[in-house]
């Protein structure tokens, strides 16, 4: 489980509850200025989540997102909630993931009329790629109620302003249609969260919205069940995304003195033959282990072969059941095929297969640690 939590913010209580249902043993964390977070692990996942409800509006979203960033130094920041659809082909219950966020209210008003001065924040390429991969996998809705239609996931711009749009003919609606015609959805917090992420340049940020109404047409009042369904759909996708984002940045610097210097938490000095190793240090961050250890292979192929042998031993010792063993072997076969290509794309496929294998053996720490070492080797190939 990643040491750095993923912060998830919501505006409404039903959005908050949809995320909270996915947390295991959440505990209360009070910020010094009064903001309440609940921190818990994701059910079936490897990351912790710090969850807060911050109310509506981009201003509060920006302020409290920055507060959460300073409090938790998170692996990623997500805003999850409801939105109104603006584009055709998006139906109630679908999920929209922002590729970029328009803060559309900026402008200049003079005698000639109103001239737009919008701001735009783009989602990082890495975050978008991970979200696209999850959407293509079609396994993310597994926790949704049986019988419910599987929602589609859409990627595109989201417009974030300071008003609730419930008209197709108002000057406000026409203005959005004229100037932000490519927007998929409209909401009220994404610009604030995007701004906070922009000010923390290395922080992955994502905005995930469930569609609870259509903002581009006149409709009867939305039935409450659609509000809950849209919130649940967004929460289901966001939970998988949070887990993947935390995993993607696992092991990166968290801001401590050792991490800021680029030093690893654990430094290994391994003596061979009659050599001896001594340690002199003023301050040591991380772990020191004294003893004799085999040197792990630095070739991915050799490391995979060793890992397979250890996997078989774990099965024979009863630490792995047959189904888990076969599932891990299937991922290792995919890893072998990816490694054989000897290309950067193959390196990415190798890393993905190993991450899946590591997830399957998370309950066997020694194997999981070995898989993590091979993942580090695989990243050098991508």
UniProtKB/TrEMBL annotation:
- In this chain the Nucleoside phosphorylase domain maps to 5-242
Give the protein's recorded name: Purine phosphorylase
The species is Actinoallomurus acaciae
């Amino acid at each position: 489980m990643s040491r750095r939590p993923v912060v998830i913010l919501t505006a409404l209580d039903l959005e908050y509850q949809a995320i909270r249902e996915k947390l295991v043993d959440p505990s209360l964390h009070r910020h010094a200025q009064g903001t309440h977070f609940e921190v818990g692990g994701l059910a079936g996942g490897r990351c912790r989540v710090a969850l807060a409800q911050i109310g509506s509006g981009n201003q509060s979203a920006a302020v409290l997102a920055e507060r959460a960033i300073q409090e938790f130094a998170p692996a990623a920041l997500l805003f999850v909630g409801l939105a109104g659809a603006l584009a055709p082909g998006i139906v109630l219950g679908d999920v929209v993931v922002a590729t970029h966020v328009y803060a559309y209210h900026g402008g200049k008003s003079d005698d000639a009329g109103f001239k737009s001065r919008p701001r735009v924040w783009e989602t990082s390429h890495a975050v978008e790629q991970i979200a696209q991969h999850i959407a293509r996998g079609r396994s993310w809705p597994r926790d949704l109620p049986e019988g419910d239609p599987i929602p589609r996931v859409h990627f595109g711009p989201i417009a974030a302003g300071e008003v609730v749009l419930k008209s197709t003919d108002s000057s406000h609606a026409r203005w959005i249609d004229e100037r932000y015609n490519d927007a998929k959805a409209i909401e009220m917090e994404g610009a604030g969260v995007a701004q906070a992420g922009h000010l923390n340049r290395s922080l992955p940020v994502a905005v995930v919205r469930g569609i609870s109404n259509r903002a581009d047409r006149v409709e009867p009042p939305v039935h409450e069940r659609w509000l809950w369904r849209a919130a649940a759909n967004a929460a289901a996708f966001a939970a998988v995304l949070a887990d993947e984002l935390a995993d993607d940045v696992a092991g990166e610097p968290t801001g401590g003195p050792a991490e800021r210097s680029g030093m690893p938490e654990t430094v290994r000095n391994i003596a061979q033959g009659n050599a001896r190793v001594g340690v002199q240090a003023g301050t040591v961050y991380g772990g020191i282990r004294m003893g004799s250890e085999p040197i792990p292979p630095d070739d991915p192929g050799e490391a995979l072969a060793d890992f397979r042998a250890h996997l078989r031993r774990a099965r024979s010792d009863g630490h792995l059941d047959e189904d888990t063993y076969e599932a891990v072997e299937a991922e290792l076969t995919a890893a072998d095929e990816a490694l054989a290509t000897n290309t950067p794309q193959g390196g990415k496929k190798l890393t993905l297969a190993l991450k899946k294998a590591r997830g399957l053996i998370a309950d066997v720490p020694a194997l999981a640690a070995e898989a993590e070492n091979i993942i580090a080797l695989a990243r050098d190939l991508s």
